[in-house]
Amino acid sequence: MPFRTLGLDARILKAIQEAGYIEPTPIQAAAIPPLLTGSDLIGIAQTGTGKTAAFTLPILSRMMADAPTRHPQTRALVLAPTRELVVQIEENVRAYSKHMPLKIAKIFGGVGEHPQIQALKTGADIIIACPGRLLDLMRRRYCDFSGVQYFVLDEADRMLDMGFIPDIRRIVQSLPKQRQTLLFSATLSHEIEDITREFLNKPKLVQIGRRANPAESVTQLVYEVSKADKIGLLIHLLKDPQMNMVLVFSRMKHAADKVANKLLQHGVSTAALHSNRSHNQRMRALEDFKSGKVRVLVATDIASRGIDVDGISHVVNFDFPAHPEDYVHRIGRTGRAKAIGDAISFVASEDYSALRALERFIGRGLVRKRAEGFVPGAIRDDAPEQQRGQQPRPRRPKAPQPNFSGHQRPAGGSGQKQWSRFRSRPAGGGDSRQR
Questions:
Q1: Crossing angle of helices 10-18/83-96, nearest 10°?
Q2: Same fold for the domain at 3-207 and the one at 218-387?
Q3: Angle at CA 87, nearest 5°, toward 85 and 90?
Q4: At what angle are helices 131-139 and 165-173 packed, to 10 degrees?
Q5: What is the pairing mode between strands 270-273 and 296-299?
Q6: Tens of pLDDT, residues 137-181
Q7: Cα dist. 148→80, 145, 252, 351, 415 in Å?
Q8: What's the distance, CA 359 to chain centroid?
Q9: Model confidence over 221-275: pLDDT tens digits?
Q10: Sheet with strand 126-129: strands edge to edge
C-alpha cells in the first residue's frame, strides 16, 4: 500500500518521498485513516515501528485542511516523557512539514527557558514538550492552549512509570473539551487503559502484534553471570566485531558512568547517556553514537527514550530490568524497521525471579548461553587493580587523629565506634525525575 492511497495532503506526500519513505508501516497504515476522520485513537505497537509518523502525518494533513486562524495560536500539543524523545519528534515533524508554513517549538528542561518563552509568545502551531517544563511555563502564564485541536500522549506507559500523570491532568484541564486526542504506547497495561478512559472520547484501538510482545526480529539471549563478573563478560563479548553498535542499559546513573569508564579503560569507544548529564552532553553522546564515533552507548531507561537510531546491532541489559515492560522497550531499540538485532541480558542470582516474571509476561522462555573463552574473575568489577594485572598497593598506616578534647587519638582502637558518631553524613539526593 503506497502512502498516496491514505488520503494525505500532497505536500506531506512530497516530503515523505524526499525522506525516502516507500510504504507505510503496519501501525501507520492502520492508524492514519481513522485519524484523518477525526477519531480519538489508542495506538499500540513496538518501539521502532513508526509510531511518530503514524500520528504526525494525519495531524499535519488535517491542519492544512483547517481554515487558517486570524491570530497565531497553538493548534497541536504533543507530550513526551524525555527531552531526547521531544527532540526526535520535533526533527521528524520538521521533516514532514518542510513544505508547509508551520511554526514548531520544543519545550523541555535542562536548557535555558528564554528561547522557549519567545517561541510561545510569538505563536507556535505545534508544541512538542516534556510535561515538567511545560507545566512550569503554564503556571507563569506563557501558554495559551485555548485553540488546541490535536493532543498527543506519546510513550504513555513511560509517562506513567515516571509519575507524570498528575502533571498531565493539570495540562489537560487547560485544553478545550472538543479536541482530537491520541495516545501511543508500546504496551497496554490496565493502568494505561484507565488513562485512556480519562483522557480520550470513544477511542479506536489500533494494536500491531500481540500485547507487550518483543520484536520478533530480535534474537534474545541470557547469560547467567555474577554481579562482579558482568563488566568482564561485557568486555569479552565486545571482542566480537559484529557487536559494532551496542546500546548497554544500566539501572542507575552512577552505574552507567562506571560501566562507560571501565570500557574506556579497555580501549572501547564509549559514551554515557543519563539525566545527570547536561542537554548538550546528552545530544553529543547520541550524535557520536549515531555517527559511529563511539561504538557503545551506556544509558539508563529514562534517558533512552527518544533513542531513534537505525543500525543498532545489539542491546545489552547489563542490569536486568525490574519490570517486563522495561525489557520490551529496551530490546525494541534493536531490530527496528524489520532489521535483525540481538538482545543480550546479564542475569545474576538476584535477577532470577524477575527473569521468570518476564518469561511469563512474554509467553516464552529465553535461551541461556555461555560465552566461549570467558574466564570468570579475570576482570572483576570489585577488583580494579587486579584486573589491570597489578599488585594491590600497600595501605599506609593511618596518622593519629585529634579528638574533640584536643588530645591525640591513635588510629583504630577502642575509641573507633565512639569517634564515628561525629562524622558528617552525606547529604541526601534530590528529586532526579526528568523534566
A1: 110
A2: yes
A3: 105
A4: 40
A5: parallel
A6: 999 999 999 999 999 999 888 888 778 889 999 999 999 999 999
A7: 17, 5, 38, 46, 69
A8: 23
A9: 999 999 999 999 999 999 999 999 999 999 888 999 999 999 999 999 999 988 7
A10: 104-107, 126-129, 76-79, 150-153, 180-185, 41-44, 204-207
Residues 182-188, mean pLDDT to the nearest whole number: 85
pLDDT reported for residue 66 = 79
- The answer to whether 162 and 434 are in contact (CB under 8 A) is yes
What grid cell was written down for 234?
A: 561485557
Domain ranges for the chain, please list them: 3-207, 218-387
C-alpha cell at 410: 591513635
Residue 25 φ then ψ, to 5°: -75, 165
Cβ atoms 64, 283 nearer than 8 A: no
pTM to 2 decimals? Answer: 0.63
State how beta strands 246-249 and 401-402 pair.
Answer: unpaired
- Quick one: fold of 218-387? Rossmann fold (3.40.50)
CATH topology of domain 3-207: Rossmann fold (3.40.50)
| The residue to which cell 514548531 is assigned | 104
